[in-house]
Description:
The protein is α+β, with helices and mostly antiparallel strands.
Amino acid sequence: MAKRSSLSIRIVEGKNLPAKDITGSSDPYCIVKVDNEPIIRTATVWKTLCPFWGEEYQVHLPPTFHSVAFYVMDEDALSRDDVIGKVCLTRDTLAAHPKGFSGWAHLTEVDPDEEVQGEIHLRLEVVPGTRTRRLRCSVLEARDLAPKDRNGASDPFVRVRYNGRTQETSVVKKSCYPRWNETFEFELEEGAAEALCVEAWDWDLVSRNDFLGKVMFNVQRLWAAQQEEGWFRLQPDQSKSRREEGHVGSLQLEVRLRDETVLPSGCYQPLVQLLCREVKLGTQSPGQLISLIEETTSTEYRQEVATTLLKLFLGQGLAKDFLDLLFQLELSRTSEANTLFRSNSLASKSMESFLKVAGMRYLHGVLGPIIDSIFEEKKYVELDPSKVEVKDVGCSGLHRPQTEAEVLEQSAQTLRAHLGALLSALSRSVRACPAVVRATFRQLFRRVRERFPSAQDENVPFIAVTSFLCLRFISPAILAPKLFHLRERHADARTSRTLLLLAKAVQNVGNMDTPASRAKEAWMEPLQPMVRQGVAQLKDFITKLVDIQEKDELDLQRALSLQAPPVKEGPLFIHRTKSKGPLMSSSFKKLHFSLTTEALSFAKTPSSKKSTLIKLANIRAAEKVEEKSFGSSHVMQVIYTDDSGRLQTAYLQCKCVNELNQWLSALRKVCINNTGLLGSYHPGVFRGDKWSCCHQRDKTDLGCNKTRSWVTLQEWNDPLDHDLEAQLIYRHLLGVEAALREKHRQLSVGPEAGHRPTGPGEAPEDPLAELLQVLGDLQEAHRSSPAGSPPSEPSRVLELQT
């Protein structure tokens, strides 16, 4: 049994930001920190005070996190990036509103005295004295303190204040993980001060000391308890008056916290088996639970439910059967071919999720080179005469204005080249398409052809396939390549226009060049010859794609199962510490790494033979490394055991904070069930004869900081978590239980009620009654679990700002 927390984050846009550059503009991006740990960086939007990001993230966290903060930054090429402002949401605030935050939030200026982090280990005792009792405060150690100096560390000391007296520890130089082990005593007198204040400071020789945080204790409570020891979170100095909000702009956010208590696997088996049985029965099932789930699910939650169901059935090997059932249900209620899969039905949403989970790597192979070419060329492309910008052309001073016709013709040529390249890549990719995707499209094609068999509807099965492949997968990826992990940055205005026009062309091809699609924008006419040619290519591609026999499908699946598909791969710099001298960034060697469910391997190039660096079962932790250790904030360490059982560490450097967190997330997820995972680690390196972080001289010291093995980012290629998916389905069904009971009541008094006989002790033959019984059993299991039953969700969403 485990309690898990996740944050759904959507960073929408900003407005009225202050200008930070001499041009009167800014280059804003967002950094998201959980408990002061950067986990997300959005793309930079250049030269704007009203940026739009539209980026979504799902972050899995331990239930003990305290806050999530959104920092809006201004990127500078020649100096440190400027902090524009921040929005901070505490865990308690988020937990009080399970439907989440949605709306605009005022940015506040960043006060250095509020930018505190870390914890301090204290022991507090009330001990008898010669005449009066004494309060003894032992300052043991601290961890994860804020780095205040340019070297990426601090010089911390602790100041203890009580009843007008102040005592200080010694200064620990260049450490965010200091150990003091110093004890102070104060006399306790009746009527004396009621608060003991413990403050952490960064000592500075020239300038004033920097505040690192404080902890306040109620002396009366200590007197009653006699002793208290533990790690205490450092708090900001809130004694100063708050600054006025709203003068540094606003940020539009959607943030939702979800806490789940996941029961042991056996508790979910009845629910999973019931749903799997319904899928296997298909439309022959008398209750059609999948249809009832769709009927009782509001549009707001349909995508979430579709994704969860899809993952659950993927884990059971029934994704194709589940989607086939949805296809049949959709076709049974569709009378007009031109309305097929046009609504936001469970079938449409599930198919979108399926393509992202099962087909993203395939999409990258087909579309990636075309997108890269568009970003690198940065050509001006425009087909709409009302939007054409005439530029000067020529060389060596012989400039002449380009005519509108020349601009339009060059733009058409560029788009025809990109469209042709994409269609050619698609045509060559039949064998590269994953077997389960091919099999699903084959079922879709066959079902639609059976439903619309007439000659006038001969294109309908093709359009059914392209409505998902082109309109809901390839075109959205062209429009927003960053959201599909095709690029790290958003496109600039010129590139965005090229991508938009190419996406329109792909949509016209996907619609089989119908008159309705042509009539919308007549200025797309120069692309019509290529579109008509593309329709023929696309039909030929789909014909080959769905022409797969059961035997071929099984052979493909076996071939794929023999390979461990990469969970993540890409170039990294590696360094393994051997010498006693200082470690410099130049000692890193660039290699191509590949993480599978078996090992972390490397090679000189992506196509070279791979050598295993670390077997997956040997990994004990994957954590960040202090910036001061290598002069870079993007270094991670993988702690593992070698063949003799000794702990070793590999240091890997990434190019940016996002890549760092993605690699850490991937490593943590594939190792989450490893035995012997570490609970603590050293964020520094063992240099010379001591650890750079806490200055301890024992190389085998357990570590001065907590590991963060549960902090991960959700990705499309995540390993399936069967118990969590079942819990999420249970949670949703519990929320619509009243609607399901009402539906069961209606069915019970209907004409078929007499055909569902049940005897004493027999399981009900009515699947809906069985589902309600399973939900009741799960509800009771949650009540009897230590964490208690999951909270019910209120019907409102808290608006940040109207």
